[in-house]
Specification:
about 40% helix, 4 strands, RNA-binding (chains A, B, C, D, E, F), Regulatory_HutP (chains A, B, C, D, E, F), homohexamer, Hut operon positive regulatory protein (chains A, B, C, D, E, F), alpha+beta, binds magnesium ion, 4-stranded antiparallel sheet
Chain lengths: ~150, ~150, ~150, ~150, ~150, ~150
């Protein structure tokens, strides 16, 4: 296990963000959370199901604000998060940022992580968003996996 | 640990594909591989670094053929894989399928998984592709995480 | 005329699908239908007028299901058709999958064809969708021709 | 046959343009050409195979100029044609205007038609471009049908 | 000042269109208007705030018709303007033609200019649209500048 | 004139950035520069002509580094500028980030401005990029105006 922890020390913020959502609700996520805690990162995980893209954007934004990942009164921080969300949604929707307009719906779990990255050149804080779940027809089971990731300086 | 295995039995093909690439070169990936093996899935992991998108597409295609994930002589299978690759690349490039044209380069690890999904309605075989790595300026360290995922029937 | 039939034997599934919709409601379409019948292809033609893209997608999907071109209980088949529809709509909307959002409306006739393609490498069944009609302002006559085509393995 | 001709009188410029390319090299195309001639339309048909999109654009442009569909010395006409070509290519490439960059190649036949449309409100001349052929891997037979259409005032 | 006027004589239609909206409500715009007048150009300036893209398109179209920049009864002119508007909106929305769907709103000023361009090859009339304002969250101050420009023959 | 200056105090950073490039090489730009200076903003103006998009991106990046608008050794700053450049280029290319691939070339002047914005919520530094010039066929005079704008926190 100590070997695993050592490995996680090499994990980038983006990899940890992705594992946080992919391992959500499993035992394994605890190690991811411990690593995030040890780095002093702020993070949260939430869920949203919608046929309207605006609800997905709103759910991630609201979660980030309510869990104090970003300061809701700072446009600067809201702007950084917003573009990270758009990037993540592009991975989910692949090619066109649309859900109900093209008759599909999503059921998603998302993670948001914020913190300092020490690598030379990086400096300051960064924010990453990972979205994982299903996309498909508005009919139970007629859907498949979807995954998206966004990253920005904050 | 047995608890973890049970959880993995609930993991979708897409989640396993994503973990296969995200946990690559760690101890944890063994459990993912065991789960893939127990389901009789075919899979492989490869790497590619490039400033030309065509090299990324070619690397994933070649890896799938050389590792017998798809039959290189079946256009049907090549077509299924090709569209899954394009979907995955859309997550990496977010908005425009371009690398060198807009002065950026990637260093990516990719996983390809193929197998039956038994859920009602699904039937037959599906293929999923996950791509994880870095995207950024052609200068060491001036890059950030990127992640993409594609899924198709085959 | 026998010459024409011989020529049609060389027509690809995609060409027949396109002619099926372009020659709809003319005498000439009968030869196209005969060729489709002789190959054992399933096909149908329908119409939809809408300012909402979701209605276009739904109309093609419903027509394919009601006319038994695809099995509505197979997600695999629904998935194949869905991506073929999206491809076809991209030809109609050229650049952005939007109608009412950018104040335009469509009046479309569509064809759906499914069947085996025997060419070496192809194997199995494929599905193609062609959409032809008008796109333009929501004002009679203030519109022009539009055409789109999608193709997928099924 | 006279019935067919009567029907063609109801064919829009766009439908005639599409049939001109789809029926190319068949007996049936003669009736399409007769109808185009009877309306005083200028038209041409050409071919291009390429892995570089710029060659496709150039082939259509050059054909239009060499066959006097447009006046090569009028930027106004070149501009009208150029945007019609881009629209047509969007139908062929579906989602991203790329060929070799994403490792695919095309073998296309294209038609260009120019002329007056008399419908109320239309006035003046219009130009339409239809592109039909195959798109796919750079390997014989590993390709499928593709179709695109563009339309503009000139 | 005569020097400034001389310079404006070298300004392209597009530059004048852009300055018309950027200098709106300032003293400086008078010189831009004088230059437009001296060339015999038709122009107008309007405003629109919306979370629905269709309202933006409608506002520019309506303004162009009401101010006699285009003839509302000519589809040819409506078509030319429509594509110029779409181009301008692409600069504002950068990457996806969406506002409320991705939870953002705009407050825009737009200019529309129409007239002859005498440069060799150009011939005839052209139309240009410039849109300038703010885009952002539906919360006062949480928005930033946006600018877009479209150009077409008419 | 004092009236004009007062008005410029109300000009946003984005408006000043846009005017800096649109009024380049005219007398009027001096007032824009004075306003930028009075706010303590860093700025520069450059030119680039290219048929390859990567050269446009590189020219703006290099200019920003050489003129000390951004710190070339800070990935954080390079990342902020890079996304602002991509946004600006989207306005120029409208719909697809391509030049030579679709047989068009650009001759552009660009401005880059960086500085603090004091409005409530904004805080810290922001960067904006405006690109203005011509886009068209690789033939003198067969081109029209193009304009793009990008904005980011830095
Ligand atoms: Mg980035
Ligand atoms: Mg899918
Ligand atoms: Mg395909
Ligand atoms: Mg049009
Ligand atoms: Mg143009
Ligand atoms: Mg922004």
């Amino acid at each position: 296990m100590s070997n695993q922890v050592k490995q996680k020390n090499n994990f980038s913020m983006g990899k940890l963000t992705s594992l946080l959502v992919l391992l959500h609700n499993t035992e394994l996520v605890k190690e991811v959370e411990q690593e995030l805690d040890s780095r002093g990162y702020n993070y949260t995980v939430g869920k949203v199901g919608a046929m309207e893209l605006s609800k997905v954007v709103a759910a991630v934004e609201t979660s980030a604000k309510n869990n104090h990942i970003i300061n809701a009164n700072s446009y600067r921080e809201v702007h950084a998060l917003y573009h990270a969300i758009l990037e993540a949604i592009q991975g989910v929707s692949r090619g066109t940022l649309q859900l109900g307009d093209i008759l599909r719906t999503v059921g998603l779990t998302f993670s948001i992580v914020r913190g300092n990255i020490d690598s030379s050149g990086y400096g300051g804080e960064w924010i990453s968003v990972c979205v994982y779940g299903t996309i498909g027809a508005p009919k139970k089971g007629f859907e498949h996996d979807a995954l998206g990731f966004g990253f920005n300086h904050i």
